[in-house]
């Protein structure tokens, strides 16, 4: 060893002699550094549209000029095609009363609708809304979207599950965290420009999630979006995100809400504006 300050030490461990340098003995691994929770953006209302106040919104997408909406509750669950500008339901399929419908997405020209606890998803023709088949999956179904390759499912926990689209076989899962804290009760989902947007049940916040790491990149704070006058039912909560990729429009609504909003994300003062999604 070179230098007076670097003396070799010999430790006997389990019958073996291990050489170490004084001042550089093995130490316990350090805990990962704490991460700060993501910052929250605000919003600006661009347009307001009518929405069926009896619709218990569980899933929402925008395709080809129309909204497609999944509504829940046993005996009231539907799949519907809705005219954005008027809120008119132009087509509707009613589910058997044993099913509680949940999240909704489009996959290769067909619609995939989750059920809450029945562990099956319904696949429909997108033009006629005619049922085509069912797919079994495990656990609860809450929200559903896709990234162009796999389906992404929330089940009310802090995890997102990535599924093979035709069989709904689980490929992987991630845990969603804001800072170091898990974000539970993830609900309706939408995939927007490489991020997963997720409603958090019984809150007025949308989490923007990295689908690679599960980290919450940012929050959208939608407090005050709908007047409390219209939110007398405790379940009249924010739930419903749809994105018009062609015109870069973001729509949000809630369960039993009489309004659907087109919004623009607005950063707090002093922080540069994000590119519009």
Overview of this protein structure:
The strands form six sheets. An eight-stranded mixed sheet has the order 18-19-20-21-3-24-23-22, with no helix packed on it. With 277 residues, it is mostly beta strands. It is globular. The chain has no helices and 24 strands.
Report the order of strands and helices.
EEEEEEEEEEEEEEEEEEEEEEEE
The portion of residues assigned to helices is: under 10%
Shape: globular
The proportion of strand residues reads over 45%
Strand tally, please?
Answer: 24
User: Mean pLDDT, as a whole number?
Assistant: 88
| H/I helix tally | 0
Distance between the termini: 60 Å
Unreliable runs, pLDDT <50, ≥5 residues? 1-33
Overall structural class, as computed from helix and strand content, comes to mainly beta
C-alpha-based Rg, rounded? 24 Å
The major beta sheet can be summarized as: 8 strands, mixed
- Give the strand line-up of the largest sheet: 18-19-20-21-3-24-23-22
Write the layout of secondary structure elements.
Layout: E1 8-13, E2 16-21, E3 40-50, E4 57-63, E5 66-71, E6 78-83, E7 89-94, E8 101-107, E9 110-115, E10 120-125, E11 131-136, E12 143-146, E13 151-154, E14 159-163, E15 170-175, E16 177-178, E17 181-182, E18 186-192, E19 195-200, E20 205-209, E21 216-221, E22 238-244, E23 249-254, E24 259-266
Parallel strand pairs: 3-21
Antiparallel strand pairs: 1-2, 3-24, 4-5, 5-6, 6-7, 8-9, 9-10, 10-11, 12-13, 13-14, 14-15, 16-17, 18-19, 19-20, 20-21, 22-23, 23-24
Summarize the structure.
The chain has 277 residues and is mainly β.
């Amino acid at each position: 060893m070179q230098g007076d300050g670097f003396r070799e030490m010999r430790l006997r461990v389990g019958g073996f002699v291990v050489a170490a340098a004084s001042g550089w003995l093995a130490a316990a691994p350090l805990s990962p550094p704490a991460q700060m929770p993501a910052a929250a953006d605000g919003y600006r209302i661009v347009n307001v549209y009518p929405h069926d106040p009896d619709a218990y919104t569980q899933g929402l997408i925008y395709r080809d000029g129309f909204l497609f909406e999944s509504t829940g509750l046993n005996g009231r669950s539907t799949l519907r095609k809705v005219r954005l500008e008027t809120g008119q339901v132009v087509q509707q399929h009613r589910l058997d009363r044993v099913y509680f419908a949940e999240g909704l997405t489009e996959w290769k020209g067909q619609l995939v609708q989750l059920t809450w606890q029945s562990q099956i998803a319904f696949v429909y023709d997108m033009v006629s809304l005619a049922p085509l088949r069912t797919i079994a999956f495990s656990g609860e179904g809450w929200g559903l979207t896709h990234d162009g390759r796999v389906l992404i499912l929330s089940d009310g926990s802090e995890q997102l599950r990535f599924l093979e689209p035709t069989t709904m076989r689980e490929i992987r899962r991630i845990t969603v965290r804001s800072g170091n804290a898990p974000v539970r009760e993830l609900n309706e989902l939408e995939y927007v420009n490489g991020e997963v947007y997720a409603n958090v049940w019984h809150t007025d916040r949308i989490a923007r999630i990295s689908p690679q790491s599960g980290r919450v990149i940012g929050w959208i704070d939608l407090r005050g979006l709908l007047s409390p006058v219209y939110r007398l039912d405790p379940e009249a909560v924010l739930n419903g995100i749809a994105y018009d990729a062609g015109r870069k429009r973001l729509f949000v609504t809630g369960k039993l809400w009489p309004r659907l909003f087109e919004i623009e994300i607005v950063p707090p003062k002093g922080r540069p504006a994000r590119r519009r999604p």
